[in-house]
């Protein structure tokens, strides 16, 4: 299964403000929604799931949602599954016939996925914002990885998308 990390970030590398707000441009939300709809599933950390609203769930195409958590979860959307690791999340989606999965944050989940060598490609949308403080793309880690650039694309008037392949060691 191809595992794709897709994230929006400020020009200085933050994926959210300290209060968890993500004030992205309309064109960014449209790109993000289109990509989740295309893949049909999303793997997210429990904190990101807590922030997902019913409107947000519908706007991303009511995908299969897999929430990675160490705890029990009361699902709030019809197609929600709880997994205790990213490996289990991928296995669940694989068993449903998917050959691609969309890893959708946040920082802690991204770090876990990176450290487990579970990211094959990264789409990073660089938004026209600078946040003085915030949540980093990856929570702190000792990882040191190399990437290969696949494409650079302008996705909005002021937004750039970088698409990389992770060079697995
Ligand atoms: N810019 C973007 O594209 C984007 C996308 C998504 C989210 N965000 C932002 O990211 C922020 C949330 O990120 P976050 O780092 O605080 O939280 P997070 O990664 O969404 O969730 C963290 C939680 O996920 C679970 N988890 C993570 N890795 C795990 C593992 N390997 N095994 C088991 N459980 C695991 C744990 O849940 P339990 O505590 O339940 O065990 C952990 O507390 C929000 O501000 C959100 O708005 C931004």
UniProtKB/TrEMBL annotation:
One of its GO terms (biological process) is riboflavin biosynthetic process. InterPro entries: DHFR-like_dom_sf, RibDG_C, Riboflavin_Biosynth_HTPR. It comes from the Bacteria. Residues 5-159 form the Bacterial bifunctional deaminase-reductase C-terminal domain. GO terms for molecular function: 5-amino-6-(5-phosphoribosylamino)uracil reductase activity. PANTHER family: 2,5-DIAMINO-6-RIBOSYLAMINO-4(3H)-PYRIMIDINONE 5'-PHOSPHATE REDUCTASE, DIHYDROFOLATE REDUCTASE FAMILY PROTEIN (AFU_ORTHOLOGUE AFUA_8G06820). This is Bacterial bifunctional deaminase-reductase C-terminal domain-containing protein.
């Amino acid at each position: 299964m191809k595992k794709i990390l897709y994230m929006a970030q400020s020009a200085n590398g933050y994926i959210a403000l300290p209060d968890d707000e993500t004030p992205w441009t309309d064109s960014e939300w449209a790109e993000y929604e289109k990509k989740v709809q295309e893949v049909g599933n999303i793997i997210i950390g429990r904190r990101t799931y807590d922030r997902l609203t019913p409107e947000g769930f519908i706007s991303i195409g009511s995908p299969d949602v897999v929430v990675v958590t160490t705890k029990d979860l009361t699902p709030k959307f019809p197609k929600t599954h709880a997994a205790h690791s990213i490996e289990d999340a991928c296995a669940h989606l694989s068993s449903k016939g998917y050959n691609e999965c969309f890893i959708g944050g946040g920082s802690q989940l991204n770090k876990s996925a990176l450290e487990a060598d579970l990211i094959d490609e990264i789409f990073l949308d660089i938004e026209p914002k600078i946040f003085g403080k915030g949540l980093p793309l990856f929570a702190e880690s000792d990882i040191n990885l190399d990437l290969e650039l696949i494409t650079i694309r302008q996705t909005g008037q002021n937004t750039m998308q970088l698409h990389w392949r992770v060079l697995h060691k």
